[in-house]
Amino acid sequence: MKILVVNAGSSSLKSQLIETDGKVSQMKCLAEKVGTPECTMSISFAPDFKKMRYKMEGASVTQCLKRLLDVMVDDPESPISGLGQIDAIGNRIVAGGEHFSKTTIIDEEARKLLDDCELLAPLHNPPADACIDMMHELMPNTPQAGVFDTAFHTTMPPKAYLYPLPMRYYEEYRIRRYGAHGTSHRYAAQQAANLMGRPLRDLGLITCHLGNGGSITAVNHGKSIDTTMGFTPLEGLMMGTRSGSIDPAIITYIMRREGKTFDDMDEILNRESGILGVSGISSDMRDVLDAAEGGNERAQLAIDMYVYRIQKAIGSFYAAMTKTDAVVMTAGIGENSAKLRERIFAGLAHMGMILDKERNDVTGQIGVNRIISIDDSPIKICVVTTDEEMRIARETANLVSQMA
Ligand code: ADP
User: For residue 73, how many other CB atoms are within 10 A of its CB?
Assistant: First the structure.
C-alpha cells in the first residue's frame, strides 16, 4: 500500500510517501519555520533523495501540504502521477484525549471528537486537524487514519494519571496526565523485547525517548503504566526549549514580578527554557556538547541538569514497577549520543544498570538496534532506532486493510 504520512507540528511539516509492502520510503518532505517569512520546504524522491528546496514565505501548514501534493503529481521523478494512487493517509496527532485509545479511521464522528482535543495541544492539534480537513476535501474517498501520541498511555491507572487537584477539574475539564511520544515508546518496548528474545508481556521496561522533546515511560507487561509528560508535553524532563517540571508557583511569581501575560509564560516555558534557557547557546544537544567540550560552563551545567533529571526519572519508574528488565534508549539523543548514555548510566550502576563501554560506542553502529549493557548486568540497556513515519504508515496500512 502507498501511505502518505502527514506529521504536522507547531512550526513544521514532515511527510513521507511510504510503500508499506516493501517498507520503503518513496518521498520525503520537511517544511520548517512554517507560518514565518523564513519558511522553507525540501522534497526528495527515491532512489537518490536529492533535495529540491522551495521558498514558502509565510505559508501555513496546509499551504505547504498542498504544494507538496502538486509537486508529487507533476514531478517526473515522483512515484505517483495522480492523487488517486495514494491508498491512505496516516496523520500523526499529538493529543487524542480520552477519546482515542488506538489508531482510528477519521470518519465524521471521529473528526468531531478531534475538535474536543484541540485545547489539549493548542500548538499541535489545530495544524493536524487543518491538514485532515484539506485532504478530505481533495481526496474524499481516500481513508485517513489518526495515529495518536497519547493512545499508548490510555492504560495508565488513575493513581498515575490524576493530579492532586480538586476532583472537579478532572470531572469538568478532563485535566489529567495524557503523556506523549506514545508510538515511539510502544515501538521501543517491542523492539527491546525482540532484542532480548522474550515476549513483551513478560517484561518490565523503562523506555526513554530523548529527542528535542523528551519523555520516559514505565512499560509493564507491554502497557504504559506511567509517563513523565503530563496534561501537555511540557511536564517531565528538561527538553531542548521546554522547562519540563518546575514548581508551578514560579509561574505566578514571574508574572507578578515582571507583569508577564499568560501567553508570555507559554512562550518562556515552551520555547525559551530547557537546554536553550540554561546554556544560553542552543536547544540542539550537539551544539551544547561541543560548547561544553570547549570549556563553556553554562553548557556543562545544562548537560549536568539534563542528565540528572533523566537519572531521577529512571529511578522513580524503577520504584513504580514491580520489576525492571531493561532500560531502552531511543530518539535523536538516546540513539546517537554515546557520551550522554555513558553519563546517564554512570549514575545508575548501583541500581543494576551496567553499561558496556565498547558496546555503547557508536562507531559503525548508528541505526543498529542492540543491547549495550554488560552480559551480567541485572537490568539490560538497549538502544532502538525510532522511525516515526514508518510506524505511522504501518499502523495506517494495518487498519485500512482490516476495513477492506
Ligand atoms: P525531534 O524531537 O525533533 O524528532 P530528534 O529525535 O531528531 O528530535 O532529536 C534531536 C536532538 O538529538 C537534538 O538535540 C540533536 O542535537 C540530538 N542529536 C542528534 N544526534 C546527536 C549526537 N550524535 N549526539 C548528541 N546529540 C545528538
Answer: 13
